[in-house]
TrEMBL record:
Belongs to the HAD-like hydrolase superfamily. S-2-haloalkanoic acid dehalogenase family. It holds the Pfam family Hydrolase. PANTHER family: HALOACID DEHALOGENASE, TYPE II (AFU_ORTHOLOGUE AFUA_2G07750)-RELATED, HYDROLASE, HALOACID DELAHOGENASE-RELATED. This is (S)-2-haloacid dehalogenase. Keywords: Hydrolase. InterPro entries: 2-HAD (IPR006328), HAD-like_sf (IPR036412), HAD-SF_hydro_IA (IPR006439), HAD_sf (IPR023214), PGP-like_dom2 (IPR023198), S-2-haloacid_dehalogenase (IPR051540). It catalyses: an (S)-2-haloacid + H2O = a (2R)-2-hydroxycarboxylate + a halide anion + H(+). Its EC number is 3.8.1.2.
Length: 223
């Protein structure tokens, strides 16, 4: 049975923390804290909207989270500066191991999919500019079911697009909530621990694999 791997994009393949470089020009040492608040609020808004059944494009969650974070921290970003920060999401770099890890997995016969909260068009363009697009059979976006991870419907949608049984489908993500959501839907899961500070939720549930990089993932799956 062909191995099917679905990769989260933001935080797993693509490094959104690169935004701190741009933030540092204005905020100095406060850049990382601002980024983390923005990112947490972005995800919180997607969770809320998923629960409410009030779907909007993920880009709107990102915009509204930025407005909130600027207001709550009194950050000196006017409307033009905020637009520049939002535009930076379309030009984020891949993690250093992403391309090589994906290539190695392809060489071993796995089918690869990108699976994201972002819109299909936005994610496809992001992967293209980061040099990763050619590794994937398809970009699968939650917009088709108008909800967000970790709603069960989005993982069912993934399985319908890949036409792969849950037991042969792996979700690869750096986000513990995504891993837990996929496990709840019956998929196998690999947690990519991108930072030594990252912690997995203490729910008494562990990912099938924990790795530090996509290169390690390729080695572990080969074993």
């Amino acid at each position: 049975m062909t191995l099917c791997l679905a990769f989260d994009v933001y935080g797993t393949l693509i490094d959104p923390s690169d935004l701190t470089r741009q933030l540092r020009q204005t905020l100095g040492d406060g850049a990382e804290e601002f980024y983390l608040r923005w990112r947490d609020k972005q995800l919180e808004y997607s969770f809320r909207r998923g629960l409410m059944g009030a779907y909007v494009d993920f880009a709107r969650c990102t915009r509204e989270a930025l407005v909130f974070t600027c207001a709550s921290t009194a950050a000196p970003f006017d409307a033009r500066a905020q637009e520049r920060l939002l535009d930076a999401w379309a030009h984020l770099p891949a993690f250093a191991d992403s391309a090589a890890g994906l290539q190695r997995l392809q060489q071993r016969g796995a089918r690869l999919y990108a699976f994201s909260n972002g819109s299909q068009a936005a994610v496809a363009a992001l992967l293209e500019q980061a040099g990763l697009a050619d590794h994937f059979a398809e970009v699968v976006s939650v917009e088709a079911v108008r909800s967000f991870k970790p709603a069960p419907s989005v993982y069912r949608h993934l399985l319908s697009r890949t036409r792969s049984p849950a037991e042969a489908t792996w979700l690869v993500s750096s986000n513990p909530f995504d891993v837990l959501g996929a496990q709840h839907a019956g998929l196998r899961c690999a947690w990519v621990r991108r930072s030594d500070r990252a912690q997995f939720d203490p729910w008494g549930i562990a990912p099938d694999l924990q790795v530090a990089s996509l290169l390690e993932l390729a080695e572990r799956l080969a074993d």
